[in-house]
Amino acid sequence: MKFNTKTIHGGQEHDKAYGAVMPPIYQTSTYAQSTPGGHKGYEYSRSQNPTRHALEKALASIENGNYGLAFGSGLAAIDAVIKLLNPGDEVISTNDLYGGSYRLFTKIFERFGIVFHFVGMENANRIENYVNSNTKLIWVETPTNPMMNIIDIKSVAGIAKKYDVLLAVDNTFATPYLQQPLDLGADIVMHSATKYLGGHSDVVMGTLIVKDKELADRLYFVQNASGAVCGPQDSFLVLRGIKTLHIRMQRHCENGRAVAEYLKAHPKIENVCWPGFESHPNHEIAKTQMKDFGGMVSFTTKGNNYKEAIKIVENLKIFTLAESLGGVESLAGHPASMTHASIPKEKREQTGIVDSLIRLSVGIEDMEDLIADLEQAIG
Ligand code: P1T
After folding, report:
1. For ligand 1, is residue 192 a contact (CB within 6 Å)?
2. Which of 11, 162, 172, 265 could lock onto 192 through a cystine, CB 3.0 to 4.6 A?
3. φ and ψ at residue 117, rounded to 5 degrees
């Protein structure tokens, strides 16, 4: 089955009871047993729920994995991965990543004795400088949030294999429409399904997908023991969202390109971060590992003018100033004060998250309207 067909049919079967084409929302916490342990595969909805299960099978299919797990948020999914580790274990992570992931690593898991190294991975060879006998996990976000750096997943997977370390890839920005990290050698794919997978800004959810049964069992144990599962209604919504992922992504990419090119030519704009530009430092890797370049674009104002940046985000009318990304509607964000405020200013600025940086999640509205909105806001 090819990808577009998989988004609609992958891992899915019609409802056994009445043939419903979409899985029913099994809004139940528990299931009747005829005798202790005598159930139909479902005991309690933290452990298993048929609607969540339908979603998990679809997730495994679209990421070319064998097992999917759905959580109450993206951060809950990341939390489950780090809970595979023990005190003293070390993680090598991309240095440019979602501020909430950084906060979870440094403010929660460092307290439990896990050591994190934040490394610029645009040159994958730099990772080897940080590997030692305690290294257990490499955490990669690509494209990175919000600087749109691209990490060579295949090269990092080679390093992970060489040292027998797990590789997890946060595939939130790319989605499996653009890149499939398991095929490139990653062990775990993670998503904030809140974003493109859900696609309509109406759900908070996280997912993990793996190929290996033993790893799936260990993650399932954490999911069930810690309990950060998502509900059946949200599972239904994300399953519905996935069915249009391919057509939404196509339009996100078209509009993202138009917005990036418009901004690049604008005299009041300084840097535009979008991996589709030939001048992007990792453009060649983006071209090989991604099908297109996505709908996320970040930019700074001329002379890093903070006031000018704030004026732009306040003036936008079709782009909504809001946290999050990946929905059908266009959003604008100011990473330094919003999504990445939990990263100390000097650390933030080392990776390029300066005070004039604006991040756009380009939606699937008419491109002409989006450009006109930017035109009136930037002036
Ligand atoms: O918000 P949540 O579903 O818990 O997902 C966390 C997360 C993980 N990884 C990436 C790459 C993300 O972008 C996010 C969430 N990001 C935002 C809310 C944001 O506006 O960037």
Report:
1. yes
2. 172
3. -115, 125
